[in-house]
Design a protein that fits this description.
Order of helices and strands of chain A: HHHHHEEEEEEEEEEEEEEHEHEHEHEE
Strand content of chain A: 25-35%
Number of domains of chain A: 4
Strand content of chain B: under 5%
Oligomer: heterodimer
Number of strands of chain B: 0
Radius of gyration of chain A: 28 Å
CATH architecture of the largest domain in chain B: Orthogonal Bundle
CATH class of the largest domain in chain A: Mainly Beta
Largest sheet of chain B: none
Shape of chain A: elongated
Shape of chain B: elongated
Structural class of chain B: mainly alpha
Helix content of chain B: 55-70%
Number of strands of chain A: 19
CATH architecture of the largest domain in chain A: Sandwich
CATH superfamily of the largest domain in chain B: RNA polymerase sigma factor, region 2, helix turn helix motif
Largest interface: A-B, 47 and 56 residues
Helix content of chain A: 25-40%
CATH topology of the largest domain in chain B: Rna Polymerase Sigma Factor, Chain: A
Distance between the termini of chain A: 43 Å
Number of helices of chain B: 10
CATH topology of the largest domain in chain A: Jelly Rolls
Distance between the termini of chain B: 33 Å
């Protein structure tokens, strides 16, 4: 091994073209000793080549360059119909958005206290919408979520209530802090951008801060106390049962992608994939026991795909197969959710 | 197309023909980084130019998608297009090169492209990386995957250059053992390149 170490070092120097004359002779002598040495040399060089190549590939920014290509495609060229095609694609993207917005149900009901007219917007599963509040705050409401808010904000603070997931761009107003009530917890902000996920059926509440500053509060009838503050690009994860929280640095892309109509999985386990995929497509996703216990993680990005397309893509990049059981008609003549059973290939 | 690639090219191709952008995106994500590195290596172009070449090839793929024959492999199409475009650029740059010297070889099989597909190469190598002791792995990754010089690594980790050197040598020794069985199978094409 001692001798081998020196040889490996020489091979590396040769590979990067840094051999001096004496080292070159040394390596050559070793190479001439046997055929086995020659193939050993080739093996090591090959190893270095492949790992360097892997590194070079990983350093390329594919997302950015895909956007550049899309731009090139959109540029009209003489006698080319590509433009038309992309307009069609754009139309496909926009029409569902319009439908989502129309779909949100707004109902106005009188609130007893403070004389505020409370409104609520709700999104069905598989549907997303956007709401503009009275103070100029913008809210994106994810699938299967409900936001309750006053028609007009008056008083010292601005307060809304959320179940499900929403992204907020809160209009800055230092004198009137903005609260998001999460049933037992509150997020307090002045002017900032952040995402909250508070689905009733989830174990955890999460808050991801994109920009600005937010405080997390716990409250009960008797008292209210501040748990912690978040810095930009941090995510707050609270275990509802344990009443324990943790803060992590997080990749915002994953948490904010749904606003752009993207569903992103990044090293997510089967449980997370089942929950989020199910919400996104309004389907019940079931991983079979073998997969659930395998510790397998998924990485994928979906845009405008249908459920079938998404599953097909998943099955190309992961060792899975799937079966879709379409919804059956229920007594009240609505349909039950589609079921998807995913198992190991 | 009788080759068993991990991705179903035929399906993606048909989807792309129907104008589905997601299929195009998928193909792009799958092949782009490898093609860029391939172009760079092919004619040692600066990264910027290599990326331009590859992007043009993808623009053409989308524009010509209806004219292309579904039965052929997207993989070969992309790599051969990039190769040809590289030669065009070379020709323009250096008119003194004789045409026949740079005519692309017709008989290069798909074999040599395989090692330019990020996820496939990664799948092959990641397992063996896991076999390295932690420190050793960290240093090797900084060196090969992130392209740092030994001196830079030593500075970053507060080690001597000699230690860094030893760790990389150690990594090579372990990896070589790990990969012994299929290294010879990979890209025979490469071997010729180095034996020259």
């Amino acid at each position: 091994m001692g001798n081998e170490k020196i040889i490996y070092h020489l091979i590396m120097l040769d590979y990067s073209g840094e051999l001096d004359k004496q080292q070159h002779d040394e390596l050559q002598t070793w190479l001439d000793l046997s055929l086995e040495n020659k193939s050993e040399y080739n093996r090591v060089v090959k190893l270095l080549t492949y790992y360097d190549r892997l590194g070079a590939m990983k350093r390329i920014n594919v997302d950015r360059d895909l956007l550049m290509v899309k731009k090139k495609l959109k540029r009209p060229t003489k006698g080319n119909t590509i433009m038309l095609n992309f307009q069609r694609v754009a139309a496909i993207l926009i029409i569902p958005l319009l439908i989502y917005t129309a779909w949100t149900i707004s109902d106005a009901s009188k609130s007893t206290k403070e004389n505020l007219v409370m409104k609520s917007s709700e999104t069905a599963f598989g549907v997303r919408s956007q709401i503009l509040l009275g103070d100029g705050t913008k809210v994106w409401l994810n699938s299967g979520s409900k936001l309750t808010y006053p028609d007009e904000f008056n008083g010292d603070s601005r307060e809304v209530k959320l179940t499900g997931e929403a992204y907020f761009q809160v209009e800055s107003d230092k004198d009137h802090p903005f609260y998001v009530d999460l049933n037992g917890y509150k997020v307090k902000v002045t002017g900032t951008r952040f995402n909250i996920s508070n689905y009733l059926e989830d174990k955890e509440i999460t808050t991801y801060l994109e920009q600005g500053k937010v405080s997390l509060l716990a409250y009960s009838k008797a008292k209210q106390n501040e748990l912690t503050q978040l810095k930009e690009k941090e995510i707050f994860i609270l275990d509802k049962a344990e009443k324990q929280y943790r803060i992590l640095n997080a990749d915002g892309k994953k948490y904010l992608a749904w606003i752009d109509g993207l569903l992103i999985f990044k090293h997510d386990n089967t449980h997370d994939v089942a929950t989020r995929l199910g919400r996104w497509f309004n389907a019940e996703i079931i991983f079979d026991d073998e997969l659930s216990k395998s510790g397998y993680v998924f990485t994928a990005t979906f845009k405008q795909e249908s459920l079938e397309e998404a599953l097909t893509l998943l099955s190309y990049s992961s060792p899975i197969t799937y079966k879709i059981i379409s919804g059956s008609k229920l007594d009240d003549s609505s349909f039950s959710k589609r079921k998807v059973i995913i198992s190991k290939k | 197309m009788d080759k068993n690639y991990p991705i179903n090219e035929l399906f993606l191709f048909e989807e792309m023909k129907r104008g589905k952008e997601y299929a195009f995106d998928f193909i792009f994500n799958y092949y782009y980084s490898g093609l860029c590195v391939y172009a760079q290596k092919m004619i040692s172009l600066p990264e910027e130019e290599a990326r331009d070449i590859v992007q043009d090839v993808f623009v053409k793929l989308w524009n010509d998608r209806e004219k292309l024959d579904v039965k052929f492999s997207i993989r070969s199409y992309l790599f051969v297009s990039v190769k040809n475009k590289c030669f065009d650029v070379l020709r323009k740059k250096n008119r003194s090169i004789k045409v026949q010297e740079i005519t692309p070889q017709q008989d290069i099989s798909d074999e040599s492209f395989e090692t330019y597909v990020l996820s496939e190469l990664e799948a092959l190598f990641n397992n063996s990386l896991n076999k390295l002791p932690e420190r050793c792995r960290e240093i090797f990754e900084l060196s090969r995957l992130q392209g740092l010089k030994n001196r830079e690594i030593a500075l970053k980790l507060n080690l001597s250059e000699k230690t860094v050197e030893n760790q990389i040598t150690k990594a090579l020794h372990i990896l070589r053992e790990e990969l012994k069985d299929y290294l010879p199978l990979l890209a025979i094409f490469e071997l010729f390149h180095f034996l020259r």
